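Q: Convert this sequence to structure tokens.
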Amino acid sequence: MRKFFSANHLTGIALAALMLLLTACGQAGDNTDPASQSAATASGTAGGTGYHRINEADPDDPLSAQIYELDNGLRVYLTENHEEPRFYAEIAVRAGSKQDPAAATG
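A:
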């Protein structure tokens, strides 16, 4: 069976898809122009990618986790399992009435 994508290619696709998802989530109360927002996101760090790796490769880590931080502070944990290839994403955010400012609940 012929492989169409390398592991690095799939990693890049997964990161790009996750960044698009997180960019679409925007922060509440953000009144900036969407065109300027996308330009700011594209300019980002690490040569305009909008994310950078914050951990070093650890030979003792059985999952070989790669941890990235996006420009907005969100962290992305990425691991690969070639025996069971699939994509799974979970986003945990501080949200809800406990996190609302006293003057802007609801």
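The two ends are 54 Å apart (CA to CA).
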